[in-house]
Amino acid sequence: MIIAPSGSAALRPKTVVIADDSVVVRGLFARWLGESGQFHVVAVAGDGETAIEHAGRYQPDIMVLDLDMPGIDGVTALPQIVKESPKTAILLATTLTERNARLALQCMTMGAMDVLPKPESRSGMTLSLDFRSEFLSKLGNIAQSSHAHGAGSDLPEPALPAGIVDLRPLISVMPRYLLIGASTGGPRAVAKVLADIDDGLQDLITLVVQHMPPLFTASFAEQVSAQIGVPAREPYDGERLSRGAIYVAPGGRHLGIDRKLGHIVASISDGPPVRFCRPAVDVLFSDAARHLGPAALGLVMTGMGSDGTDGAGALRRAGAAVIAQDEATSTIWGMPGSVVRARHASAVIALDGIGPAIRSLVRGGHGA
């Protein structure tokens, strides 16, 4: 069940345009959205050109966009859709292939908010209650984002002031491990932070939990590596972690850490979801609290839900600092907001300030 946000913004169903070359998919999505009572499908499109036209005409709150369409495909159409309707939140819906994973990540850098892998067969789509639930959940999450309704959330004010905070008085040792957790809106935000840390990454072992399905996480790691020139990939179970490298949790599996023969190694597991997430930020943070203590630095970024809150508390109790992205620059202030409300955040920092703050920490304040 999706709970609509309180206030007047919840009274009006979110307007949606569905762009998919399959008439069956368009009809199925439209029926599901109509039955939910929270969305109003104002138009459908079978190709990218029509999707662009509908974006300009209807200015929808949300567009569900397929990547594979005749004529102008979703990737080509996306920049024009953003231009025609800048406030429209875009959910990509595509089949799960390596090619589409790369294209979806490219689209996220151009403004798409999230991606939904479609079942390979139409029968799998029509018969899967899990897929329907995930579709409505993602649309519900997007509907609650500030991007989709043009206003801030109804969450209380942060418990700590926003802005760059001097973390040095709050840490006992310089961090050697950077642990990042993110979900909706994360790929672009995480990549920016890593790029802003710049050469400070050479002094860190960086581990990232980004809520994504299989294939997408490997492509995300490749994209990050190409963008910032630092090795980034999914680790294997038991791999000894190296300074100057970025390790991304594989989609559908937990990434934790362990200590073997005096070395910190990656721990990859198929354990049950934590807070409905696998990989889960809580798993990584909790392991880090146990094995790293104050040598760890946690960062919780944009995303729906509360994954990372318990782990952030464990990190703080172990003497580590935790940064939360601020509400104004988060696509969805669910995960970082939960950490802030639980009073586990050492600092609340806007996206542009996170990378410089971390770089200053690991450089001892001399490389900012």
Task: State the gist of this model.
This protein is of the alpha/beta class. The chain contains 13 helices and 14 strands.
* Cα shape: elongated
Number of domains: 2
Count of DSSP helices? 13
CATH architectural arrangement of the largest domain: 3-Layer(aba) Sandwich
Helix share bin: 25-40%
- Structural class estimated from helices and strands: alpha/beta
Oligomerization category of the chains in this entry = single chain
* Strand and helix order: EHEHEHEHEHHHEHEHEEEEHEHEHEH
What is the arithmetic mean of pLDDT? Answer: 88
Spans of at least 5 consecutive residues whose pLDDT stays below 50 are 1-10, 149-162
By CATH reckoning, the class of the largest domain would read Alpha Beta
β-strand amount: 15-25%
**Total number of beta strands:** 14
**End-to-end CA span:** 46 Å
- The CATH topology of the largest domain corresponds to Rossmann fold
Overall radius of gyration:
20 Å
InterPro entries: CheB-like (IPR008248), CheB_C (IPR035909), CheY-like_superfamily (IPR011006), Sig_transdc_resp-reg_Me-estase (IPR000673), Sig_transdc_resp-reg_receiver (IPR001789)
Subcellular location: Cytoplasm
Modified residues (4-aspartylphosphate): 66
Protein name: Protein-glutamate methylesterase/protein-glutamine glutaminase
